[in-house]
Each structure stands twice: as C-alpha cells, then as structure tokens.
Write a structure and sequence with these properties.
This is F-box domain-containing protein. This protein has 456 residues and is an alpha/beta fold. It folds into two domains: 1-42; 44-426, no CATH class. It has 16 helices and 17 strands. It has helices at residues 2-5, 9-16, 21-28, 32-42, 56-65, 102-107, 160-167, 169-181, 206-213, 236-249, 306-314, 339-343, 348-351, 357-367, 414-423, 425-455; strands at residues 45-50, 71-76, 117-122, 189-195, 217-222, 226-227, 230-231, 259-263, 270-274, 282-283, 296-300, 302-304, 320-324, 327-329, 373-377, 400-403, 410-412. The strands form three sheets. The chain has a nine-stranded parallel β-sheet. The protein has a six-stranded mixed β-sheet with strand order 10-9-12-14-16-17. Strands 6-7 form a two-stranded antiparallel ribbon. α3 (21-28) runs antiparallel to α4 (32-42). The longest helix is centred in the C-terminal third of the chain and has 31 residues, at 425-455. It is globular, with a radius of gyration of 25 Å.
Length: 456
C-alpha cells in the first residue's frame, strides 16, 4: 500500500487512534516509518495476566517500552485451594513468581510514577471449575457450567472476611491485589471489570478511603452470572454486597470523582424490583451519597427505581448522563398470601415501584439544571407485541421488564413496551427535555463567547 505509507504522519496517527490493538499491530508491520510513528499508540496499554508465570518478559517490556506505557491492564485469575495448600504456611501470591516483586511493585506504584490509569479485570469464568473454593476443609464450590453463582450465594457477617482470607486462597489473593493497588498514590483513573461481590478487610483501612478519595475517573462493573437458570442477583450474598457493602465501603469515599460509570452484568442486573429473602420487591441502588465534583454519570444494565431519581436530585453539578441498556420495572400485583406484608406501612417503598421513563426526563428537566447532555442507548430494540405494526425508523421503544421472583432473571415486558409506545407520553417528555438541553448548551456557548470577548 504505497499510497497509505506515503500519508503524512498526522493522518496516520489519527487513523491509528481509531483502530483496535490487532489492526494497529498490523499497521506497524507495513514499514519502519509507520512502526516508529505508532509505537507510542501500540504500547500505550500494557496488559498483564495475574498471577505472573515468569517475570523475565515483564522486566524486558518495562525496560524497552517504559516511555510509551501510560496505562496498565491486569487480567486476574484467582484460584481455589489445592491439595498442596494443606501443608503450606504461606498463601500463594497473586503476583505469581517468587523470584521477583516486579509485578506487585508495578501495581503499587513503586516502578512508574507517571502511570495514572489502571484497569483490573477479574476473569468471570474462574469459578466454573468445581474445586475447593471454600478452603481446605473438603467443601467444594463452583462448577455447573459458565459463570457459577455458588461462591456468592450466602450472606456474610461484616467481619467474616478476616477469617475467610486466612482459609481461602482466592479470598487471600483478592485481598492482596486490592491492598497493593490502594497504596499506589499515582492512580487517578481506575476501572474494575467484574468486581467480585464479596467484602474484604481492605475496606476497613484508612488507606482504602484515602485511595478512593484520590480518584477522578472510576468505572465499576460488578460480577454477574447464571447457573442452572438462577441469576446471582437472586442470591442473598450478592444483594447484601450491592445494597449494603458497595455503598458504605466504596461509593461514599468517591469524594473527588468527576466521571463515574456503574455497570451491572447482563446476567445479573440490580436496581429496582429485585427479590431477596422477602417476598416484596426491593430497590437495590448502591449510589446514595452526593458527589459534589461529579460531572459525568453512566449507568448500564440497571433497573430504574425511586432511589435513582432521589440520587439524581442530589447531583446538582451533573453535566452529562448516559443510560445504557437501562430498564423500567413493571410493578407486580401482590399475591393474596402476601396481603399482610404488602399492607404493612414499613413496606410502602417496596409497593411504590411505579417509576416510569417520563419520571426520569421530568426529574432532569426540573432538578438537574446543569445537565447539558443526556444519552440513551439500547444494544437491542425492546420487543413489542406481535400484532403491532413495525415502528417507524428512528422511533424509540422505552424498555420495560419484570424480575422473576424466584430465579432473579430479567423478563421483557412486551405489553408494557407496547402500551408506552402507543401512548407516546415518555417520548413527548424526552423530546421536551432534548429541547431544554439544546437551549442550555446554546446559552452556555453564548456565555463562554461573551467571556472570551471581555478577556480580549
């Protein structure tokens, strides 16, 4: 491709920025000039599998490409207890090789002071193998196919993690990784993919609070799975983590975050309409505390409830909101045998689940005066009843679902989708909001232009 290789460096770099890692690698192989031009893009992110098998290659990569590396991605494989662990007095290190502390020193910031962005990906399939996930006492967990949920089934006492991290290898490794990362003073941007819904004693340290307080960008994805038809979101242990530990041990310390993304797994959504040990629906939304610095909020695979609307009203400085695969929960009729529970005033919040799409748009318009942009994304078009004609191109079907009380799975509500589509109320409210946002952006642009003119 002589015509491509002759392009100016600026154009080549602009193209490379849009490509994936494999395509960038292929581009770098075309000739020496292109390779030199895009080396800093190709080696910008260093991906490492933990535990480390050998430190030699890592040492070489750090030495050769240290001036290009600006982001670290860790793909973490935790392991169960093995037979040889019965006689071990020291827990296996998450760093892997014992000959070098290079990986752990990289994680805790001792090697590079310029790297402020970390991504930590916990492998979602690591619990698929039936093994000693509960320690050396002969109890087995895991297995049963992709994404087992047995390891996260039961609730735990807040202090139970102290004992479990002494007995279970994967819990000890989980603790070790978070303990190392929280001592890195350079990290400003942190991403967790499949954060495990289990507490660790790291959460009780002052250093953990300090670490979360230094973050400006935080992307948090929570582990989710299905096993034999069950969703982990129906498990008491999962609901305890999302509803109790996540708000008190993580979210409340994000005092300087400007961008926050909270993502549930497609297999295990959370928010409104979840059923735990009680026979009434609960609103398990982990964001409760106001973040004064928050400007951008992105939510994915979460069900809409009143807790979310209350949280929106607190975020006076919010400027951008993205709702990705968001769902409105259709209220269930109480069953006859549950009449006493539903009539109890203490459960009034559980009964009042009728929060709709129009409530979101109205809340933003009236309460969030600084919001400039709202983005609504659906990976797939929500279904309608079969008898409805095809909807016009560009029209929006607002998604409604029900949460199965027993299995915890999401069930699409075609009837509610169709009723909302025919009514058009939410679409009208959304259209009104978009007009308001355009007006806000226009006013801000005029204000900025006026200030620039005065400065001159």
């Amino acid at each position: 491709m002589p015509s491509f290789t002759a392009l100016p460096t600026e154009i080549v770099l602009a193209i490379a920025e849009l490509l994936g890692p494999a395509d960038i690698k292929g581009l770098s192989c075309m000739n020496r000039r292109l390779r030199n031009d895009i080396t800093h893009i190709l080696f910008r992110t260093l991906s490492i599998a933990m535990p480390l098998v050998s430190h030699l290659l890592l040492d070489h990569m750090l030495e050769k490409y240290k001036k290009f590396i600006s982001r670290i991605h860790l793909h973490v494989f935790l392991r169960p207890n093995l037979e040889e662990d019965n006689d071990n007095t020291v827990m296996p290190s998450i760093g892997g090789t014992m000959e070098s502390n290079t990986l752990l020193d990289l994680v805790n910031g001792k090697i590079f002071s310029h790297i402020d962005s970390f991504s930590i990906h916990f492998d979602p399939c690591q619990f698929d193998i039936a093994s000693r996930w509960y320690g050396n006492d002969g109890d087995w967990g895991g297995g049963h196919g992709s994404g087992t949920i047995t390891v996260f089934e039961d609730e735990e006492d807040e202090d139970a993690c102290f004992e479990l991290e002494e007995e279970q290898v994967w819990r000890a490794q989980y603790f070790q990784l978070l303990a190392e990362i929280m001592h890195n003073p350079n990290i400003k941007k942190l991403q967790f993919i499949n954060l495990l819904p289990r507490r660790t004693k790291v959460f009780d340290t002052l250093q953990w609070e300090k670490f979360l307080g230094q973050l400006t960008h935080f992307d948090l994805g929570i582990f989710g799975a299905e096993c034999d038809g069950w969703s982990v979101s129906a498990m008491p242990g999962f609901m305890q983590f999302v509803g109790e530990f996540l708000p008190q041990d993580i979210m409340k310390y994000l005092i300087n975050v400007k961008h926050l993304k909270l993502e549930a797994s497609e297999l295990s959504v959370f928010g409104a309409g979840l059923y735990g040990d009680h026979c009434y629906a609960q609103d398990v939304f982990p964001l409760t505390s106001e973040i004064p610095t928050l400007q951008s909020l992105e939510l994915k695979n979460i069900t809409l409830g009143d807790s979310f609307l209350r949280y929106l009203r607190k975020q006076a400085g919010l400027r951008e909101l993205t709702l990705h695969n968001y769902m409105c929960v259709s209220p269930d009729e109480p069953e006859e045998e549950d009449d006493d529970i539903w009539s109890d005033p203490a459960n009034a919040d559980a009964v009042a689940m009728g929060v709709g799409w129009s409530d979101i748009w109205d809340t933003i318009r009236l309460w969030n005066q600084t919001v400039q942009r709202v983005t609504y994304l659906q990976d797939e078009q929500p279904p309608l009843l079969d008898e409805d004609p095809p909807f016009p191109k560009g029209s929006i079907v607002w998604r409604h679902v029900k949460i199965d009380k027993y299995w915890g799975n999401v069930v699409e509500d075609e009837e509610a989708n169709t009723e909302e589509y025919r009514c058009g109320c939410s679409s009208d409210m959304n259209s009104n909001l978009m007009k308001v946002l355009i007006s806000r952006r226009h006013k801000e642009a005029l204000s900025t232009k006026s200030q620039a003119t005065e400065t001159k």
